[in-house]
């Protein structure tokens, strides 16, 4: 007699991936961004991150105690025809981990979405919750690690486990021409992803810095990687990153993305 397992609604919607090897297989097998988003949202391959994101979602911050937290990995946001990708660090515990949308519901998100709006890449300057009317044009926003990490610090192993998701996401953007990387962690995480995608990576690997610009060649055509300080409060409150500095990077990204018609 065959016993069929009954899946919960969440398990049916978000297929569970439990191991690093499973992440590799699931990412490689995905052909559509919408499916990739669902698979990312069901990932449980990093036990430390799973425990933390779920604890935060249960305990909550007092100011959000009446809200239902997402408490899952956070997928990317933006259309499949995007020519620009913006890659950050990881969801915030009470931001993306709460709202279920990348860079949404925290001060970092306030900065990046306002900048995308000023650059003509978003239809509004704010992102507060899923269903708030936000639409992105020509840009896809994602993170190197998809779960909120303790102390906002993923381990190298967690970064590497998550990297196939990012690799597949970028691969499913056929018009991609520019990647804007927010912060040194994302900068480090990106190079193995691009090398695996067939891009020729300079050696030694380029050093991160605000305004850094690296031109790459590959079978899919040219790609430019731009560096920017992360939109963290540590940088924005101290003036290490200002609005004009961030705007300059995104202006450069749009210039480069449009240069090939």
Short description:
The protein contains 10 helices and 5 strands, in the order H-H-H-H-E-H-H-E-H-E-H-E-E-H-H. By secondary structure, the protein is of the alpha/beta class.
Architecture overview:
With 261 residues, this protein is α/β, with parallel strands linked by helices. It has a single domain, classed as 3-Layer(aba) Sandwich (Uracil-DNA Glycosylase, subunit E). It contains ten helices and five strands, in the order ααααβααβαβαββαα. Strands 2-1-3-5-4 form a five-stranded mixed sheet, sandwiched between helices. Helix 2 packs parallel to helix 7. 46% of the residues are buried. The model is unreliable at 1-8 (pLDDT under 50). This is Type-5 uracil-DNA glycosylase. GO terms for molecular function: 4 iron, 4 sulfur cluster binding; DNA-deoxyinosine glycosylase activity; metal ion binding; uracil DNA N-glycosylase activity.
Low-confidence segments? 1-8
What is the CATH third-level topology name?
Uracil-DNA Glycosylase, subunit E
Helical coverage, percent range? 25-40%
Radius of gyration: 18 Å
* Class per helix and strand makeup: alpha/beta
Mean pLDDT: 93
Strand numbers in spatial order across the main sheet: 2-1-3-5-4
CATH class: Alpha Beta
Number of separate helices: 10
Largest sheet: 5 strands, mixed
CATH architectural label: 3-Layer(aba) Sandwich
Beta-strand residue fraction:
5-15%
In CATH terms, the superfamily is Uracil-DNA glycosylase-like domain
Compute the number of strand runs. Answer: 5
**How many domains, in number, for the residues?**
1
Distance between the termini: 60 Å
Order of helices and strands: HHHHEHHEHEHEEHH
InterPro entries: UDG_Type-4/5, UdgB-like, Uracil-DNA_glycosylase-like, Uracil-DNA_glycosylase-like_sf
Protein name: Type-5 uracil-DNA glycosylase
GO biological process, one term: base-excision repair
GO molecular function: 4 iron, 4 sulfur cluster binding; DNA-deoxyinosine glycosylase activity; metal ion binding; uracil DNA N-glycosylase activity
């Amino acid at each position: 007699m065959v016993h069929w397992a009954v899946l919960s609604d969440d398990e049916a919607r978000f297929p569970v991936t439990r191991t690093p090897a499973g992440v590799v297989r699931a990412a490689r097998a995905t052909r559509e961004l919408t499916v990739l988003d669902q698979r990312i949202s069901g990932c449980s391959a990093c036990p430390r991150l799973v425990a933390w994101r779920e604890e935060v979602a249960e305990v909550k911050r007092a100011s959000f105690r009446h809200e239902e937290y997402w408490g899952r990995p956070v997928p990317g946001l933006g259309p499949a025809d995007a020519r620009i990708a913006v890659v950050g660090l990881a969801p915030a515990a009470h931001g993306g981990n709460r709202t279920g949308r990348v860079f949404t519901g925290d001060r970092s998100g306030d900065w990046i979405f306002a900048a995308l709006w000023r650059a003509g890449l978003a239809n509004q300057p704010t992102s507060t919750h899923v269903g708030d009317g936000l639409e992105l044009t020509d840009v896809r926003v994602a993170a190197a690690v998809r779960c909120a990490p303790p102390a906002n610090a993923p381990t190298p192993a967690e970064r590497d486990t998550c990297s196939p998701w990012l690799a597949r996401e970028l691969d499913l953007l056929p018009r991609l021409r520019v990647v804007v990387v927010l912060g040194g962690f994302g900068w480090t995480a990106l190079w193995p992803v691009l090398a695996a995608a067939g891009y020729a990576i300079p050696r030694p690997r380029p050093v991160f810095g605000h305004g850094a610009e690296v031109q790459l060649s590959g079978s899919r055509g040219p790609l430019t990687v731009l560096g920017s300080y992360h939109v963290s409060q540590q940088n924005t409150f101290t003036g290490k990153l200002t609005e004009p500095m961030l705007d300059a990077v995104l202006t450069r990204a749009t210039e480069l993305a449009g240069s090939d018609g």
